[in-house]
Amino acid sequence: MIMYALAAVLFGVGLYGLLVKRHLLKKVLGLLILEHAVNLFLVEVGYIEGGTPPIRIEGADAAAFVSNAVDPVPQALVLTSIVIGLGLAMLMVALTLRIYERYGSLDANRMSELKG
Amino acid sequence: MSDQQGMSLIVRVVTRWLFGLILVFGLAVALFGHLTPGGGFAGGTIVACAFVLAILAFGGARGPGATFARWASSLDATGALAFLALAILGYTAGAFLHQWAGKGEAFTLGSTPSIVLLNLAILLKVGAGLFAGFIAVALFEQTAESGKGADA
Amino acid sequence: MDFVLYGLTAFVILGSIAALEMKSLLSAVIAVGVVGLGLSIVFLLLAAPDIAITQVVVEVIVVTVLIRAASRVPAETPSLRAGPARTFAGAGLALVAVGLLVAAFQTLPAFGSQRFAPALWYLEQAPDLTGAANVVTAVLLDFRAYDTLGEATVILTAVVGALAILRRPSSRKEESHV
Fold first, then answer.
1. Alpha-carbon gap, residue C20 to C14, rounded angstroms
2. Is residue C54 part of a domain?
3. At the N or C end, where does chain C have fewer CB atoms within 10 A?
4. Considering only CB atoms, which chain B residues are within 8 Å of C163?
C-alpha cells in the first residue's frame, strides 16, 4: 500500500508542476514526471512479493517459474508507454522552442493573450 | 557555437572507439530480445544513443546533420512499413500478425523467427525515429537566433 | 527490500520536487534525469529488467534533448513564478488528487499480494506457444502486437510532427514574410 501511495504522491507532484508553473519548459518537466508516476504505478500492480522477472531460463523449473514470476502484461504496456513518452517529450520540446522563437516568451499565461 | 567543431580530441577518440561497440550492443539487445531482457525498443534507443553521441562529439549537426535527418526519417518510415509488411505476412499463416515463420528449438536465436524479425523492424523504427527527432531539435537551435525575445 | 524500495521512491519524489523548484533550467533538467534513473532502479527491484533497461536509455536521450532546449531558452525569472494564490490552489488540487488516488487504491489487492488472472495463463502458455523465453516480448510482439503496431504509429507521428514543427522555413517564404 505504501508503494501505491508513493506513486500517487509522485503523480501529485507532476500535477502540481503542470498546474502551477508558468514557464513552458517546467510544464514539460511536470508532464514527464506525471508519466513516470503512471508507469511506476502500472509496474507496481503487476508485482508480487519475492517475484522473479517474467523471463524463462533454460533448464529452470517451469512450475516454479509460473508461481514466482511477476505479471508480464503491465510490463509490456509500460515498455511501449516509456518510448511513447520519449517521442512525446521531443514533440513538446519542439513546440516549446518554436513558441519561444515566435513569441519571445515562455509564459503560459501570456500565450492566451498573444495572437500569432 | 562551439558544438560546430564538436568536443575535445579525447572525447572524439573515445567516441570513435565506442561507436561501433554501442551499435553492436544495441543490435544484440534487440536480436536476443526474445530470450533475455531487452528487445526492439531498448535496442533501438541504444542505437539512437550511439548516433547522438557521434553528432555531439564530432559536431556538424548542421552540415551532415541535415542529410542524416533526411536519411533517418526515411529509415523511420521504412521500419514502420517493415513492421506492417511482417504483420501482413502473417496472413500466410492465417491471420494478421500471426507467427508465419514457424518455431525452432527453444532457447535459441531461431526459436521464434517472426518475433526476431519484428524486433529488428522496431529497432530500425525506434532508432531512426529518435535520431531524427534529436537532429531536428539540434538543427533548430542553430537557426533560432531570429526570435530573441522581448521579456522572456 | 521494502525499505530500499520506499527509500528509492522517496528519493525519486524529492528529485521531482527539485526538478520543478530549481531556478536554473539546467539543474532542473538534471534533476529530471535523477528521477528517471532512480525509477529505473525501482523497476529493476520490481522484477522488470526490460523496463529498467529501456528507462535508462530513454532517460539519457530525454536529458540530452532537454539540455539542448534548456540552453536555448531563458530561465524561470521571478516574474514567471506563480503568485501565492495560484500556488496554493494548485498544491491544494494536487493534494486532493493524491487523496482521491490513495482512496481508490484501497480497493486494489495489497501491494505484492496477487497477480491478475490472465498473468498465470500468459506465464504458463506463452513460452511454448510463441517460442520466446521472454514473456514480456511474447506479449508485446505476439499476443498484443496490435498494440505495438499502434505504438509504432504514434512514434512515427510524434517524430514527423517534431520535424514538421522545427523545419526551417524555406528562404523564399521567409522573404515574403519580411
1. 10
2. yes
3. C
4. 69, 73, 132-133, 136
User: pLDDT tens digit string along A26-81?
Assistant: 999 999 999 999 999 999 988 888 888 888 887 778 788 888 888 999 999 999 89
- Residue C7 inside a domain? The answer is yes
Residue B105, chain A, CB below 8 Å: the answer is no
Which residues of chain B make contact with A103, given a CB cutoff of 8 A?
Answer: 147, 149
Digit-coded pLDDT (tens) for C21-45: 888 889 999 999 999 999 999 999 9
Report if residue C125 sits inside a domain: yes
Residue C86 lies in a domain: no
| Mean pLDDT score, B76-96 | 84
pLDDT recorded at residue B63: 64
**pLDDT at residue B142, as a whole number:** 54
Domain termination residue (choose one: C19, C44, C73): C73
* Coil, helix or strand at residue A23: strand
The verdict on C121 and C177 lying in the same domain is yes
Interface test mutation site (partner A, options C108, C123, C177, max chain A beta carbons within 10 A):
C123
Rounded-to-integer distance, Cα A48 and Cα B6, Å: 48
Q: Bridge partners of A69?
A: A52
**Chains contacting B with at least 3 CB pairs below 8 Å?**
A, C
Q: Which residue has the cell 521500419?
A: B79
ipTM: 0.89
Instruction: Note the CATH architecture for domain A2-50+62-111.
Output: Orthogonal Bundle (1.10)
Question: C176 vs chain A: nearest CA distance in angstroms?
Answer: 16
Out of C47, C73, C99, a domain closes at C73
List the domain boundaries for chain A: 2-50+62-111
Q: What is the mean pLDDT of each run of 10 residues along chain C (178 residues)?
A: 88 93 90 92 91 92 90 79 85 93 89 83 84 86 86 88 78 47
- Count of domains observed in chain C: 2
Question: In the 3-class helix/strand/coil scheme, how is C54-94 assigned residue by residue?
Answer: HHHHHHHHHHHHHHHHHCCCCCCCHHHCCCHHHHHHHHHHH
Residues C31, C12: contact at Cβ < 8 Å? no
